[in-house]
Amino acid sequence: MMLENSLLTTTSLPLLPQSVIVHAGMEYALAKENSGFHLAVLANENDDRLALFEGERTCIGKSKLVYAPQNAHNGAILRSQIPWLQPRLLGLHTSAGLGDRLGLATPGHVRAIRRTDNAIAPIFAQQSIREMARTGRTPQQVMDDAIWGVFQENWQGGFGADADHLKTTDDIDACLEAGYTFFTIDPGDHVDNRAETASLSELHELVEGLPAEMRIKANGLLRKTLQIEHIKVVLEEKILLKAMAKYGRAVWHVAAMYRHLVDKAGEKPFELEVSVDETAQPTSHAEHVYIASELKRLGVRWVSLAPRYIGSFEKGVDYIGDVAAFEEDIAGHAAIARFFGPYKLSLHSGSDKYSIYPAAMRQTHGLVHLKTAGTSYLEALHTIAPLDTDLFREIYIFAREHYAADKVSYHVSAQLVRAPLPEEVKDWAALLDQFDAREIFHITFGSVLKEKMPNGKMRFYERLMGLLYTHQEEYTENLEKHIFRHLFPFTQQ
Question: Any residues with CB less than 8 A from the CB of 48 and at least 6 apart, and which?
Fold first, then answer.
């Protein structure tokens, strides 16, 4: 049945024009009030679906308008009625995960993805359990924020939702309940870096401690030779034992997490990513062969894998290392991924690594997944710097004070002595272009967002979010340009 009226012509609500859609006989839009976002839903007065939404009701002729708060309940009803608001699988399509630590970045991410002309499949809901803890968010809140952003920009091209860096089955369960479709298993706690310097006899001892199903007799890889495109991998005794000692328990953990996921997901489709990037030493080609071979033997199915590449992938800054050597390294990993898969190679801590994007795209032939998160938080700071210099200065001083404690769980090399002293800064926004200051801002996000004053009020969060909400279009435009710079190299074949 056609609607008699239209939201844009019959109401004076502060609607965002790009959000207005008509679907299955109902009209929806997002309105931006000083008090926050609201959902407007218009349908024929006898449409039972309107009763599902919480909000104020107004009759307009033979139509009824529900003006609903932007809350979890109304978000869930909206998702149930509009199919493209449900996360989906991305498969082997070139893809990018666009994490959002504040809950306001998705509109900018959507606009950047639109500029790729469907060359890149997006993940809009993405946050690691560690980051959720540091920002005080739940898997459901991360999902809801992303979906409201998708709705706001009327993105109908599909998107995934990444439950990132999961370490426990409880993590899996919480993210399954919230509707995630992409699960990144992080077995880093089970990687044994003693293997890097162990002697042959020590490697034998380490391997003897593995579960029986992970021993040499079980995997059948000893002295096996594989010619994979341009690389030759010979699994001689010490090479294989080192791979087993280093990654055996990690592979076993991934397999256990995968079996739990299969059991709990039931009929729900999902995709798996395996991440071994947060390790002390690079993943050799032989070690990649071992990981892939064992995962297949154990019945694991995965869509992407994140090795630890050579060079340094520090937070929020460009790749540190020899770009030509990186290209040679990823070329071998890509050949292995095609041989055992095909599956995608994932670039974790991928924000701002502009120098290596062309090589990654070239060598993977598009079987690549870029993962970004903190860079969108930095763009939030970039947005507020000219709007409230006092707040930006206060955040920088605080970030310097908390850098030593916060850097413990991150791989960064910024030094306080190299970052400009607050009293020496003349261009505050330019701080975000200075290597050390940028990393300091990047990794102290959790402390900044959760810091409270003695009276219990948030020290920074409300002022930061208020500025970004008031000036969301500026933030969205800044993000669109910044994220598209990341994505453009992955549109070039």
Answer: none
Average pLDDT for consecutive 10-residue bins of the chain (493 residues)? 75 96 96 96 96 97 95 96 98 98 98 97 96 94 98 98 97 98 97 96 97 96 97 98 98 98 98 92 97 98 98 97 98 98 97 98 98 97 98 98 94 96 96 98 97 97 98 98 98 90
Contact 471, 360 (CB under 8 A): no
What phi and psi values does residue 299 have, to the nearest 5 degrees? 85, 15
Rounded to 5 degrees, what angle do the CA atoms 321, 327, 333 make?
A: 115
Cis preceding linkage at 342, omega within 30: yes
Q: How far is CA 447 from the centre of its chain?
A: 20
List active site positions.
Answer: 164, 273
> How would DSSP label each residue in 112-170?
HHHTTTTSSEEEEEEEEHHHHHHHT--HHHHHHHHHHHHHHTT--S--EEEEEEE-SHH
Cβ atoms of 210 and 252 within 8 Å: the answer is yes
DSSP 219-276: H--TT-EEEETTEEEE--HHHHHHHHHHHHHHHHHHHHHHHHHHHHHTT---EEEEE-
CA distance 130 to 124: 18
pTM above 0.85, yes or no: yes
